[in-house]
Design a protein that fits this description.
The structure is a single chain. This protein is about 30% helix and about 15% strand. With about 100 residues, the chain is an alpha+beta fold. The protein has one domain: His-Me finger endonuclease fold (3-Layer(aba) Sandwich), CATH 3.40.1800. The strands form two sheets. Strands 1-2 form a two-stranded antiparallel sheet. The longest helix is centred in the first third of the chain and has 13 residues. The mean pLDDT is about 90.
C-alpha cells in the first residue's frame, strides 16, 4: 500500500463504502464471476485525487475483483507467469514443448 493511502484505506468511510459495494456485487468478481476478493479503484488513487470523493468513494469508480483478475489488471498479460510453450518432463525439469 502506498504511504499516502494508508490513512484512507483504514478510514471508516472507505470500509463502509467497500463493504456496501461488495454486497451490491453479491461477492462475485465482475470480470470472471468467481468469488470476489478486492474492491479495486478503476481510476487509481494518487496523492492528487485522494481527497476527491468522486474518485475514492464513488461506486462508479469501483470493481470487485478476484485475485487472478486483480493481478491481470495490475500486471497485464505481458507479465503472465503461465506459458504454453514449455512443460515439465517426468523428472520435473522444464523443457520446450
Amino acid at each position: 500500500m502506498k504511504p499516502y493511502a494508508k490513512q484512507f484505506y483504514k478510514s471508516k468511510a472507505w470500509r463502509q463504502c467497500r463493504d456496501a459495494y461488495f454486497i451490491c456485487q453479491h461477492g462475485l468478481c465482475e470480470r470472471c464471476g468467481d468469488p470476489g476478493l478486492i474492491v479495486h479503484h478503476k481510476e487509481y488513487i494518487t496523492p492528487s485525487n485522494i481527497n476527491d470523493l468522486d474518485i475514492t468513494l464513488n461506486h462508479d469508480n469501483l470493481d470487485l475483483l478476484c485475485q487472478t483478475c486483480l493481478n491481470q489488471e495490475h500486471h497485464g498479460a505481458k507479465q503472465s507467469v503461465v506459458r504454453d510453450d514449455v512443460m515439465f518432463d517426468e523428472r520435473g525439469n522444464l523443457i520446450a514443448k
